[in-house]
Amino acid sequence: MIVEIKDVIKRYGDRIAVDNMSMNVREGEILGLLGPNGAGKTTLINSIIGITGINSGEIKIFDQVMSQNNYYVKKNIGVVPQNLAIYNEFKAYENVEYFGRLYGLKGRELKDSIRQALDFTGLWERKNEYPKKFSGGMQRRLNIACSIVHRPKLIIMDEPTVGIDPQSRNHILDSVVKLNEMGSTVIYTSHYMEEVEALCSRVVIIDNGRLIAQGTIEELKEYIQDEQIIDIVLKNYSHSITEAVKAVYGVKECLLQEGRMKVILDKSSSLARIINSIVENGGIITKINMEDASLEDVFLGLTGKKLRD
């Protein structure tokens, strides 16, 4: 195991941010870490990389106990933060050089590593330009270059594609796969469920600081195998319709967004009752679809929330 987390608790005053968490990250995998806002993902990541101390439990990385002073472990980790960690007063080359030096690179090894990182992210031809002139996608790619210049064994990527154009997003997703193929283990967080489904060999879902499910995507779908998912398109809709559907026996979750209602219910439940509840509360149904379970449906069923909530 690259990462072993056992019975970890982290408190901020009376609030428990990570609640008795135990999980592992296997060598060579791309692990998706999912949770709604406030679930504890950032605290967990900061604990893994040694920025945040824990109150109890144990975190091991590369078979060593992680601490704020374990520099061997830290220099083998690359972190791509959600908030850009680049300097606008430095050129692209100088940014990567700065982080390379922080990780102890120097001389020919440093120069070669900078070239490889900028080549990998498609920025070598722009190496002498300042990041403030870059598009949002190019800044994100420079962020990655700074995080991989030392060729880390473990890469943690926190929302690396947020707010960028489709071309840069595809470039980054391809880069994640290539980094994994080159030998790096990746922990990947995202609010785009389709990214997680495309990239990750295994997924961990957390909520309120607790691990609530983990496994491959197919294994996670088994959590709702006794349920059915219905997509209802409404011409007229309101909050009262949502509440009425939630009150129907057998309904597990009901989410209304921009005229589309997603309902997760027991297979023994009656679709007719749901339709009647909608009509009786003034709703006009234009279309009903029965859907196969997706990772988004699993997440909604387990947390009661959409990933982007």
TrEMBL record:
It comes from the Bacteria. GO terms for molecular function: ATP binding; ATP hydrolysis activity. This is ABC-type multidrug transport system, ATPase component. The keyword Nucleus does not apply. SUPFAM superfamilies: P-loop containing nucleoside triphosphate hydrolases. InterPro entries: AAA+_ATPase, ABC_transporter-like_ATP-bd, ABC_transporter-like_CS, DrrA1/2-like_C, P-loop_NTPase. Keywords: ATP-binding, Nucleotide-binding, Transport. Pfam families: ABC_tran (PF00005), DrrA1-3_C (PF13732). Residues 3-233 form the ABC transporter domain.
